Amino acid sequence: MAWNWWRTHNLAALTAHSQDPRIIVENFNKESLMATMNFSIPDEVKERFNRAFADRNKSAIVTQLLEDAIAQAERQQRSNVAIDRILSRLHHQRTPVDDEDAIRAVREDGRP
Q1: Residue span of the structural domain in which 15 resides
Q2: Helix H or strand E segment including 109
C-alpha cells in the first residue's frame, strides 16, 4: 500500500512539471532503477496467479521466479559444458581395438 501512495503522490508531482506522460514514466523508471517487461500469458494463468498471490507484491514474486529460472538455465548450461568436456575426454582416450588377440591381451594383462 505504501508503494501505491508514493507512486500516486510522486506521479502527481511529476505531472505538474511535464505535459508528456512518456517523460513521467521514463523519469519514474530511472529513479526506481526498475525495468518494465511485458508478457502475454493465458487468462487462466493470470487469474490463478492473482488469486494465489492476492495479498503479496506480485512484482517481487515475478522477479524471484525470473531469478530462479535464470539460475536454473545457467546451471543447465554449466552442466552441459561439463558433460561435453567429459565425453570429449572419454572419446579421445579410447583407442579402437581391431582384433580379438588385442582384446585378450588387455584382459589378461596384470592377471596372475
Answers
A1: 2-108
A2: none
